[in-house]
Design a protein that fits this description.
By secondary structure, this protein is an all-alpha fold. It contains 18 helices and no strands.
């Protein structure tokens, strides 16, 4: 009991920020329910109601006993598949607690939202020792957005698409937490895996590699493509660590091999399913989420870009493996966002996380420079 209380006291500010974020993310839904009338009913989604309806239908499918994913809004016969299983498993769980699907959806949005934000804080603590910069990095990662509102005010939108701040759920941590629990689940697993691997580099422990392999498989069942982001981050972190130590650490090389092999079976299954299955391949072809012109991303992450560049400069000087990993996440994300795939922008899941960590690094060193060169401004 005392251990738990000490843990809460030690992380009181982090817990407060996490709960505050979840409360803020719930305001649109609370507003929707409070505005109901006898003739108007809020169905639970303030954005992307089509996907919300699909997710609720998959919860109901799980409640009926399904363990696989099948399209619920088509009469065309097709085989069920073991992919995108998050809401199906929730439905199976709901056979025990018997909640309304909409209530279960909101409950899990809070549970996995809290988990994702706690995992994000744990990752940030591996990058920054000072609590002040941990909180700055957290706030930037969660609330870091773009300058789309300025674009709208000035009437400067370079095409028929509105600024990405208002619709690209994948990229923004807060947006994902406010809408869909499976986004939070993926964000949580990506952050947890990076924390586990960072600790493995520092302390060893094959149980951490086993956990990473398990999380990679779970993530593939929910989002078949997201783990490539953390794979790239881990590989670059490892090589940066080797460069710093001027030697190849064989245990880490073996760990990379184990993690890679653990992902191959589901990777092969998903590629075959989404590419060659007669119906699922059509779903893949129709599921176009292409990237807008690069100028949208330039505006969409606003001032984060400026501070990220500053953080990159200091990362190159210090040769910090964690921040090299964050840089790799950004680079691979944007490379894949313009690769010849129909799901380009899906590869930007949680991209504000590495942008925020590098931005906080730039801000931290910028503040130290000001304090050292212009001490009268630091007072």
């Amino acid at each position: 009991m005392s251990l738990g209380m000490n843990l809460i006291k030690k992380n009181a500010v982090a817990i407060f920020l996490i709960l505050l974020t979840l409360v803020l993310s719930s305001i649109p839904k609370w507003a929707g329910y409070s505005a109901e009338t006898e003739g108007l009913i809020f169905k639970g989604a303030f954005f992307d109601p089509q996907d919300y309806a699909v997710h609720i239908s998959m919860i109901r499918a799980g409640m009926l006993g399904d363990w696989s994913y099948q399209f619920r809004f088509t009469t065309e016969p097709h085989r069920a598949a073991y992919t995108r299983l998050f809401y199906v498993i929730l439905g199976q769980f709901n056979r025990i607690i018997r909640a309304e699907p909409e209530a279960l959806f909101e409950m899990t949005r809070w549970i996995f939202g809290f988990t994702a934000l706690a995992a994000l804080f744990a990752l940030i603590k591996r990058a920054f020792r000072e609590s002040f910069w941990q909180r700055i990095a957290f706030l930037l990662a969660v609330f870091g957005s773009g300058l789309g509102w300025i674009q709208l005010i000035l009437g400067w939108v370079p095409g028929p698409i509105t600024p990405i701040d208002f619709w690209l759920i994948d990229a923004y941590v807060f947006f994902g937490i406010a809408l869909f629990p499976h986004f939070s689940f993926v964000t949580a697993t990506l952050c947890i895996v990076l924390v586990l691997y960072f600790d493995f580099i520092e302390q060893g422990g094959w149980h951490r590699i086993a956990l990473i392999a398990g999380f990679s498989i779970l993530t593939q069942f929910v989002n078949p493509i997201a783990f490539v982001l953390v794979d790239t981050t881990i590989i670059v972190m490892t090589f940066a660590s080797w460069v710093n130590k001027r030697k190849v650490v064989m245990t880490q090389a073996i760990a990379l091999g184990i993690m890679g092999l653990s992902q191959i079976p589901l990777l092969v299954y998903n590629v075959h399913l989404l590419t060659f299955d007669p119906v699922w391949s059509q779903f893949t072809a129709q599921n176009e989420t292409l990237s807008p012109p690069a100028i949208y991303y330039a505006w969409g992450f606003g001032l984060l870009w400026i501070f990220t560049v500053a953080g990159l400069v200091f990362t190159l000087r210090e040769k910090n493996a964690v921040f090299f990993g964050m840089l790799a996440w950004i680079i691979i994300g944007f490379i894949l966002a313009y690769a010849p795939f129909a799901i380009q922008r899906r590869f930007l899941h949680g991209i504000t996380i590495p942008l925020a960590l590098l931005s906080a690094q730039g801000l931290k060193h910028g503040a130290r420079f000001i304090e050292g060169k212009l001490p009268f401004l630091a007072r």
